[in-house]
Amino acid sequence: MALTRDFKDTVKRRAKSDPDFSKALLHEAIDLLLDGDSATAKLILRDLINATVGFERLAEEIHKPSKSLHRMLSVSGNPTMDNLSAILATIKKALHVRIDTTVTAL
User: Fold this and answer.
1) For the chain, how big is the Rg over CA atoms in Å?
2) Residue 91 pLDDT more than 80?
3) Residue 103 lies in a domain
4) How much is the average pLDDT of 92-96?
5) Residue 103: pLDDT over 80
6) Total-model pTM
7) Does a structural domain hold residue 4?
8) Is residue 1 part of a domain?
9) For labelling, which of 1, 36, 66, 73 has a CA lying 20 to 30 Å from the CA of 60?
């Protein structure tokens, strides 16, 4: 029987070893949020947090319980704009990136 890796473990390993992959995950999560697919965006953010900042550190940074953050970023979670903004700011800081928003016509 062939050995397989759990998908989340694969994402976590790749995000830890490849900064461009982590940045691409953040970019995808933001695009999904802006396109109205918050459920998928939250799951991507959750994987990204697990691979980079970690929920315990994130909880310390934004002064929210770790369990609350896990719930916020679940499929049925409903983070406030303030919480989502704080989460994105913390990830941005951890990845050493600037989020550039450019609006273009379709």
Assistant:
1) 14
2) yes
3) no
4) 93
5) no
6) 0.85
7) no
8) no
9) 36
